[in-house]
User: Fold this.
Amino acid sequence: MKKRTIIALVSILLIAVICIIGNIITVAEKISEMSPWLGYAFYAILLVLTVLYVLWPTLKIIFTPELKPAGEEITPEEKKETDEIVKKTARNVFILTSISQNGALDIFSSLSMNISMINKIVEMRGKRPSFGQLLRLYTRVAASSVLIASADEALNEINLGELLGLSGINVTAAIFKSATNGMLNAYVTLRVGMTTLRYLEEGSEAFKANKSAIRKEVRRAAIKRLPLVVATGVKDSVFGVKNWF
Assistant:
């Protein structure tokens, strides 16, 4: 990977991390206003979660042998199992980021669940993408999560009810905003999961040679699968609530 590309990806990732830290500090300050000990507890819990769901899976991926440049054959059973992992993760991302109503939590949960998904795919294959490809995948998740959270905040400032002449009625409300947030995060997860699988299937040489075509194919496949993921997420959420009563 070219030096300029590495610098660009690292810069984007650092910007995303700074935004994540900024959101976390904001939340921690609000919690600390209620009690300093609650603030300390928040940081402690966040540290434990970061180690368990970000750092540890990342280390496991790093210490997995790198895939051969020519790639390795993936059996239909392995591909089916991987597809299920990707769809399940995308569904969980949709559910959690739809109901959280918190930008910092959305960014952290989306990043951690995507890293966990990559780790599961790598564990199943016994091989990992190159460090350059992992950096691209991590950057895509982090940057996309920050952008989606920022867009979510922007939606708070828009009142479609007023735009439509319906005074006092905010048509955007929580449902539209939450559903949009969840769908965008689920779409990113689908793309990351399918890109990881294609890389492990094709190998670095073929993937690099056909990168543009593969990206287009992955985007189309992600858009095609998104409605089913959203429908499943809504269904699971509704029945989950019903089971509480």
